[in-house]
UniProtKB/TrEMBL annotation, chain A:
A biological process from GO: peptide transport
Region entry Disordered, spans: 295-314
A GO CC term attached to the entry: plasma membrane
Keyword Zinc: no
Keyword Cell membrane: yes
Gene3D superfamilies for the chain: P-loop containing nucleotide triphosphate hydrolases
Residue intervals of the ABC transporter domain: 8-278, 321-564
CDD domains: ABC_NikE_OppD_transporters
NCBIfam families listed in its UniProt record: PRK10419.1 (NF007739), PRK11308.1 (NF008453)
Name recorded for this polypeptide: Glutathione ABC transporter ATP-binding protein
A Pfam family this chain is assigned to: oligo_HPY
TrEMBL record, chain B:
Iron recorded as keyword: no
Transmembrane feature ranges: 12-32, 101-120, 132-157, 177-199, 242-264, 284-303
Bilayer topology: Multi-pass membrane protein
InterPro entries: BPD_transp_1_N, MetI-like, MetI-like_sf
Keyword annotations of the record: Cell membrane, Membrane, Transmembrane, Transmembrane helix, Transport
Location in the cell: Cell membrane
GO cellular component: plasma membrane
Protein family (similarity comment): Belongs to the binding-protein-dependent transport system permease family.
UniProt domain ABC transmembrane type-1: residue ranges: 97-303
Protein's name according to its UniProt entry: Diguanylate cyclase
Biological process according to GO: transmembrane transport
Main location: membrane
Length: 590, 319
């Protein structure tokens, strides 16, 4: 390669914290050529975002940076020390105040012009008090001497280019008036406002629904191809990598362990970690375009069935929980929102029912109705055969004791001031009269079941990793031997390898204990692996439901088909075909 | 349209709150030891005198009837008559309220003009010597009683340096007071001191919070310079919590005026309140309480409206 737009050499980043120096990135070297997309992948804490921020010079003040980063030949890191060697670099790091100041103007000239960035969280990436058009105008006028009116004209044009409908009117909107996908389009419009040669995208689609993700990725691909922009794509999603990248660099604990063309890394990984990582990725079994139904189902049954509980199939008897024609309306009058509309769901003992849909489809609301946390505006909920509306006080509490719940955020759902043992024991205190010793032994028993070492019992939740914390939540949910487990996105905040372990624990316990499980997830691959039946929700209504292997392979409705088509699979060749098929359908529809 | 409806609703709420305040004030009036009669006629009054007084004032009627009578006189602007000054309370307050407003508003403006940039600057220079110095000073200023701080001002700027008079401008009308601006300097500064201390803290923490927000990083990634980021984005976003606090700060300002006016012999409501308290002049005290309550309600209403203007999310009911 003759020319590179991004050149990172031996980058090292250490954060100074109250507890000492924390190394985040060590000896990272990579390049991005014009028109090329390099995906930087890895799990949380691997340092991939740190590399991206370092490349833009956006690391916080407590970061110590060594090595060299150059964008289009201009040094971002080590610019003042040049080639004076290790001693000079150490000196520059020590007096980063002075060095940083000298580079500040230079840096801001580069940012948003030569190199720009798209961030993960579109909800917070925009100034809430400034109209989106004005925020784009600002980026334009940061770098080019155009009049306000001309810049405003350009901003509208940019909004049109990133696919915002009615851009002239939308330019006057505040960020909160736009959807998540639209906000991300605005962030992209800001990023491409000055035709940068390098685009750094840090998990640009992680916070979005799959269908929106597919659109945003299409948009980025198109923009990059049109202008020959080099892209550094930071992501944890192997499907996104397969969909988008030319080359891949895999990071583990701050270092790059494997680099190569996307086909090679995703299909023939050489490093043991990459192999493990890819093995843990839940794969959506897909009917290839043109493949018949019979062929597809053999593909599914050929999969190793870790996490699937076939025992649940066909289990008869009373449903453990049953929602009948449930509607939920929030608010009143003209502002009323119908979150659920005549939804009927049943879950039987030993069975896992997956609840899928895009954000706002009502899946979490349905889970809350099942938990008895939201009273339905119409319809009936029966729990263990008892009508929830007719039970009050003590009998209602007894019903509640039969439900365990695991929520999405393992940090927020545990009381930070309680020890692990106290967190797990709390339901026992509420619902059972037990001596402290009995409680303790029950807690230890449950910790064993979720495969957490007993030694963790007296630790605080914050001392645990995300996966461990989620297992504490699970232990707490299971401590009363529930007949129903409601899991609302239980693994969405976890890395894939951890996700796999947690799902395995749930499946194993379910096989042992026979509880019913209502499993809410936006991840179709996880649901496909984990749930025997699936309910697809859309805007508060059930779009379709059925056995997972049938519904998610050969869906009956266009909506489910679109949803499935939007999921990127971590095989570049397959994903290319899927994308072509999806775009063909979209093109035909348009 | 939504804004108009909102205004109507908020004003109705404010009226309701003020109505509740009148109930509290009325209850206070009746909770006086021995009732208003004993308070007015003094400890030596005979039972006969008290009974006559109660009859004259309608105090022998049922409490509810008395309340409505009180409310009716209130609506006519009649707050009762001062025992010691022998003048209608409303006249006394109308004379003094504008002067107190001038003092408190000037103090508030001066306080905010200093506090907001100070707080922002502190946030930008967080954990640097400048930040520490201002933090120390504001803690000292916050802990210093207004009375003591005012005395120091008098000692330094009036007695030693002779820059400003120690006595506030006198006079019955606002014009007479404003005709002598030099005399206003020390009272205004004394009133502003604690305001600077409190609001620079608010501004500092609001700015710090906003500097850590993602949108700041986005602006930086778009090539905005530090100064532009501060003034174009962080400033407005940090201002909203400060403005919300301002409404609730109105009674504190009046409380400060009480001390400042007494100290500088400024002929405002604080001084009126102070002397009424010393002579158990209950109608005056309760009149003042009512006025301060109304001012607080109006203050929060104004703060809400300003916030609505700054933050479009408030209009939509999300944040």
């Amino acid at each position: 390669m003759t020319k590179t737009i991004l050149d990172v050499e031996e980058l090292g980043v250490t954060f100074r914290t109250e507890t000492g120096e924390v190394p985040a990135v060590r000896g990272v070297s990579l390049t991005v050529a014009p028109g090329e997309t390099l995906a930087l992948v890895g799990e949380s804490g691997s340092g991939k975002s740190t590399v991206a921020l370092a490349a833009m010079g956006l690391l916080s003040g407590n970061a110590r940076i060594t090595g060299r980063v150059a964008i289009d030949g201009t040094d971002i890191v080590g610019s003042t020390t040049g080639k004076s060697g290790a001693a000079g670099k150490a000196g520059a790091a020590g007096s980063s105040g002075a060095a940083g100041k000298a580079g500040a103007v230079e840096l801001s000239r580069l940012r948003g012009r030569t190199a720009s960035m798209v961030f993960q969280e579109p909800a917070t990436a925009l100034d809430p008090l400034t109209r989106v058009g004005a925020q784009i105008v600002e980026v334009i006028r940061n770098h080019r001497p155009v009049s306000k009116a001309a810049a405003r004209q350009e901003a509208v044009e940019l909004l049109r280019r990133v696919g915002i409908p009615d851009p002239a009117r939308r330019a006057a909107a505040y960020p909160f008036q736009l959807s998540g996908g639209q906000r991300q389009r605005v962030v992209i419009a800001m990023a491409i406002a000055n035709d940068p040669s390098l685009l750094i995208a840090d998990e640009p689609t992680t916070a979005l629904d799959v269908t929106v993700q597919a659109e945003i990725l299409d948009l980025l691909r198109e923009l990059a191809a049109d202008a020959g922009t080099g892209v550094l794509l930071v992501t944890h999603n192997m499907g996104v990598v397969a969909d988008f990248a030319d080359r891949v660099a895999v990071m583990l604990s701050g270092e790059i362990v494997e680099t190569g063309p996307v086909e090679q890394v995703l299909l023939r990984p050489r490093h043991e970690y990459t192999q493990r990582l890819l093995a843990a990725v839940p794969r959506l079994a897909v009917a290839e375009p043109g493949e018949s139904a019979a062929q597809a189902s053999t593909t599914v049954s050929a999969r190793p069935s870790a996490g699937v509980t076939p025992a649940a199939e066909g289990s008869a008897g009373e449903p453990v929980v049953r929602l009948r024609d449930v509607s939920v309306v929030f608010g009143r009058g003209g502002r009323a929102v119908r979150a659920l509309d005549q939804v009927s769901i049943e879950v039987r003992a030993g069975e896992t029912v997956g609840l899928v849909g895009e954000s706002g489809s009502g899946k979490s609301t349905a889970a809350r109705v099942a938990l008895g946390l939201i009273a339905p505006s119409a319809g009936a909920v029966s729990l263990f055969g008892a009508d929830l509306r007719r039970t009050r006080g003590r009998s209602r509490r007894r019903l509640r004791a039969g439900i365990g719940v695991v929520l999405q955020d393992p940090v927020a759902s545990l009381d930070a001031r309680m020890s692990v043992a106290e967190c797990v024991a709390e339901p026992l205190r509420v619902h059972r009269s037990m001596s402290a010793r009995q409680r303790r032994s029950r807690v230890e028993e449950v910790l064993d079941r979720v495969r957490l070492p007993r030694a963790l019992a007296d630790r605080a939740p914050r001392e645990l990793s995300g996966g461990q914390r989620q297992r504490v939540s699970l232990a707490r949910a299971l401590v009363l031997d529930p007949r129903l487990l409601v899991a609302d996105e239980p693994t969405s905040a976890l890395d894939v390898s951890v996700q796999q372990a947690v799902l395995e624990v749930i499946a194993e316990l379910q096989a042992d204990l026979g509880f019913a499980c209502l499993f809410v997830s936006h991840d179709l691959a996880v649901v496909q692996r984990f749930a025997a039946r699936v309910v697809v929700l859309r805007a508060g209504r059930i779009e379709e439901q059925g056995r997972t292997d049938a519904t998610l392979l050969h869906p009956e409705t266009d909506y489910t088909r679109r949803l499935l088509a939007a999921v990127p699979v971590p095989d570049p060749a397959v994903q290319r075909r899927r994308r072509a098929a999806r775009q063909a359908v979209a093109g035909a529809g348009a | 349209m939504a804004t108009l409806w909102y205004l109507v609703r908020r004003v109705a709420q404010a009226v309701l709150v003020i109505f509740l305040v009148t109930i509290v004030v009325f209850a206070l009036l009746h909770a006086l030891p021995g009732g208003p009669a004993r308070g007015i006629l003094g400890a030596q009054a005979t039972a006969q005198q008290i009974a006559t007084f109660n009859h004259e004032q309608g105090l022998d009627k049922p409490v509810v009837a008395q309340y409505f009578y009180y409310l009716r006189t209130l609506l006519h602007g009649d707050l009762g008559t001062s025992y010691t000054l022998n003048e209608p309370v409303s006249t006394l307050i109308v004379q003094r309220l504008p002067k107190t407003l001038v003092l408190t508003v000037l103090s508030a403006i001066l306080g905010l003009l200093l506090a907001i940039p100070l707080g922002m600057w502190q946030a930008v220079r967080r954990n640097k010597p400048f930040d520490y110095a201002i933090t120390t000073l504001s803690f000292v200023a916050y802990a210093t009683p207004v009375y003591f701080f005012g005395l120091i001002l008098v000692l330094v700027f009036s007695q030693a340096l002779r820059w400003f008079p120690s006595q506030a401008p006198q006079g019955d009308t606002l014009g007479q007071v404003l005709a002598n601006p030099a005399g206003l300097v020390l009272p205004v500064v004394a009133g502003a001191a604690s305001m600077v201390a409190v609001f620079s803290r608010y501004m500092r923490s609001a700015t710090l919070e906003n500097l850590a927000e993602d949108y700041v990083r986005t602006a930086k990634a778009g090539g905005a310079r530090q100064r532009a980021i501060l003034w174009r984005h962080v400033f407005r976003n940090s201002l909203t919590p400060v403005i919300a606090m301002l409404g609730y700060y109105v009674p504190v300002l009046f409380g400060g005026a009480l001390v400042v006016e007494q100290l500088f012999n400024y002929p405002g409501m604080g001084l009126l309140f102070w002397s009424a308290a010393q002579s158990s002049d209950y109608p005056v005290l309760l009149g003042c309480v009512l006025v301060i309550s109304v001012a607080t309600v109006i203050g929060t209403l104004l703060a809400d409206i300003v916030q609505r203007v700054i933050d479009p999310r408030v209009v939509a009911g999300k944040s």
